[in-house]
Write a structure and sequence with these properties.
There is one protein chain. This protein folds into 2 domains: 110 residues, Rossmann fold (3-Layer(aba) Sandwich), CATH 3.40.50.1860; 108 residues, Rossmann fold (3-Layer(aba) Sandwich). The chain is globular. 46% of the residues lie in helices and 14% in strands. The longest helix is centred in the last third of the chain and has 16 residues. It contains 11 helices and 8 strands. It starts with 5 loop residues before the first strand and ends with a helix. A 4-stranded parallel β-sheet has the order 2-1-3-4, sandwiched between helices. By secondary structure, it is an alpha/beta fold. Helix 5 crosses helix 10. This is Aspartate racemase. Keywords: Isomerase. One of its GO terms (molecular function) is aspartate racemase activity.
Length: 244
């Protein structure tokens, strides 16, 4: 792996999910020493307005703020960008237009992973703004798959759980409630589940789910490591070649 690859992280959306992504990235990196880990530049900015309100048009777009964060990370030396929030990918185009470095989409990383098992109907456990923006519905349809969604009441129950996680709550009660919502998607015919909200892995794991669970956080970690592995390292100095 090219450990000289510097990853820029658009974070704080929410804070615990950003830290969880970094912890999973560190735990998954095949490193035996500090120096074998990737350098991370993190803009941990929880001050952005509510993304769900912005998608719904109830508040201004967060695209300009995300673009500014992306430019700052590029100027600081990032070789690529990731964003630890599914809903904020509604402004992916703003981010890509603002920089000249690759942006690794959590949506693409997650839906691409489904190709290994090719389930036709996929339950999408996502927040309001992510669903209203149609991020996973479009990505799945483009690959010939159908998104299975909750009823309005179930969606409202999910959002209430997400805000409890954001408030710092953890424990078996939340896990049980999320597992019940996963069961509801299975009952509607889903053959696999996407944890399309980065708060979900904080309280729900594969062992709690009734179907194969594709956690977007883990799949963004995998995409990040794959990018770093495929990125050429710096050319060796002439002196190093002479003594090789």
């Amino acid at each position: 792996m090219n450990t000289r690859c510097t990853v820029g992280v658009l974070g704080g959306l929410g804070p615990a999910a950003t830290v969880d992504f970094m912890a999973r990235l560190i735990a998954t990196t095949p490193a035996a020493t500090d120096q074998e880990h990737l350098r991370l530049l993190v803009d941990h900015n929880p001050t952005l307005p509510n993304r769900h309100d912005a998608v719904a048009g109830r508040s201004p777009s967060v695209g300009p703020a995300l673009a500014a964060m992306a430019r700052g990370l590029e100027r600081a030396g990032a070789d690529c960008l990731v964003m630890v929030c599914n809903t904020a990918h509604a402004w992916e185009a703003d981010i890509r237009a603002a920089v000249d470095i690759p942006f690794l989409s959590i949506i693409d990383a997650t839906v691409d992973a489904l190709d290994e098992r090719a389930p036709a109907r996929v339950g999408v456990m996502a927040a309001d703004g992510c669903l209203e923006a149609g991020l996973y519905q479009r990505a799945l349809a483009a690959r010939g798959r159908e998104a299975v969604l909750w009823s309005p009441a179930e969606q409202a129950a999910f959002m209430a759980l997400v805000y409890r996680v954001k408030a710092g709550e953890r424990g078996p009660a939340l896990t049980t409630a999320l597992a019940a919502l996963a069961d509801a998607l299975a009952a509607r015919g889903a053959e696999a589940l996407i944890a399309a909200c980065t708060e979900i892995p904080l309280v729900l794991s594969q062992g709690d789910a009734p179907l194969p669970l594709y956690a977007s956080t883990d799949l963004l970690v995998a995409r990040t490591l794959a990018f770093a592995d495929a990125t050429p390292g710096p050319a060796p100095e002439q002196g190093a070649l002479a003594h090789g």
